[in-house]
Amino acid sequence: MSAKEAVAPKETITAKISRWAAGVEYEQLSQDAVYQAKRFLLDSVGCALGGYQQHDVKIALEVLAEIAGRGPATVIGTGKRIDPVSASLANALMIRCMDYNDIYWKQDPSHPSDIFPAALACCERARSNGKELIVGLVLGHEFEMRLCEAAFPGIRERGWHHATLTAFVSPIVAGRALHLPWEQIQHAIGISASRQCTLGAVTAGKLTMMKNTVDPMATQSGVLAALMAEKGYTGPEHVVDGKEGLTHCFGPEWKLNLLTDGLGESWRITQCGMKFFPTEALTHAPISAVLDLVKNNDLHPENQEDRSGRRSRDREGLPRAPARDREHYNRRRPRVHQATRLPQR
Questions:
Q1: What residues contact 200, with CB distance under 8 A and at least 6 apart?
Q2: Which residues pair with 151 in a beta bridge?
Q3: What is the count of structural domains for the chain?
Q4: 130, 101 Cβ separation under 8 angstroms
């Protein structure tokens, strides 16, 4: 076969994504995208300040105090500066642990602001300005949300957790914040994504601290991958659309064009949701319904009667959960009835 007859190899999805992510500029972002990035950042910092007080975060910080190295990245709530990999885990866990941060749910659910700490830590390392930070925040939402639209059915329906997708996106954010060339961002995607597939067990059945930890770990994975790629480490470029990559292993159907079609024409971050109530996302519909019932029927607590006939566990003589477990639950999850209680007059 002559050189003219030879067919050029098909460009991988990660090459298209990486080239675009490396080249996009702050001035290309829409005004609304910039506004939403700032809005979600403030929301995330608020979540992190609450998360800093939680038991699982305290455990993680104790571990990181033992193993983290010195570095330029700030740990929210402490003022301490440690290495970017450790800081990204700590800060992402603070944002995520109470399940109060942003929500996007199409074929798959996600919380794109879990990736913000990758941009924060790597921008601090690169001594970048606020505009570069905003670009990183927008990129995280762009590709996390696109990945949540691309699988039919979503990977959660196939038994996998959406942190699997975060591991593809966090190295894009970290790599851009570190000013890596697109080729190194592409390798960072391969490094992170090829070793970070997350089982759905963390959100199925008994819930443990890992439910809200796997996504922060996927964010941490992207930061580590970007730092390795910066030094010349390589990863599989075909990790999305090649042999034994994402679509090959996870099965049909995937609409990969959704990952790249119309990049820069609009911005997914403007479509992301912010929680109205500090509760898990699936509780928002019943909370809203109860509030509407209260408002539309002019209900007042002094006029209501409990007709359930139920008695408390204590009066029934049923065993209660250990005090430590009750304290942990009450601190972590405000009861739905507290959010929906009837207004006082």
A1: 156, 159, 160, 161
A2: 254
A3: 2
A4: no
Closest CA to 73 of 228, 210, 224: 224
**In the chain, what is the straight-line distance between the N-terminal and C-terminal CA atoms, in Å?**
85
- In a domain, residue 5? The reply is no
Handedness of CA 19, 22, 28, 33 (dihedral sign): positive
> Helix 182-193 vs helix 163-177: angle between axes, to the nearest 10 degrees?
150
Tens-digit pLDDT profile for residues 227-258: 999 999 999 999 999 999 999 999 889 999 99
**Full residue range of the structural domain in which residue 314 is found:** 281-340
Q: What does the longest C-alpha to C-alpha distance in the chain come to? A: 88
Q: Are residues 231 and 315 both part of a single domain?
A: no
Q: Give tens-digit pLDDT for 109-152.
A: 999 999 999 999 999 999 999 999 999 999 999 999 999 999 99
d(CA 95, CA 57): 10
Same domain membership, residue 286 and residue 267: no
Over the chain, what HEC string results? CCCCCCCCCCCCHHHHHHHHHHHCCHHHCCHHHHHHHHHHHHHHHHHHHHHCCCHHHHHHHHHHHHHCCEEEEECCCCCCEECHHHHHHHHHHHHHCCCCCCEEECCCEECHHHHHHHHHHHHHHHCCCHHHHHHHHHHHHHHHHHHHHHECCCHHHHCECCHHHHHHHHHHHHHHHCCCCHHHHHHHHHHHHCCCCCEHHHHCCCCCHHHHCHHHHHHHHHHHHHHHHHCCCCCCCCCCCCCCCHHHHHCCCECHHHHCCCECCECHHHHCECCCCCCCHHHHHHHHHHHHHHHHCCCCHHHCCCCCCCCCHHHHCCCCCCHHHHHHHHHHCCCHHHHHCCCCC
pLDDT in tens, 282-339: 888 899 999 999 989 888 887 777 666 554 444 344 444 444 443 443 444 444 444 4
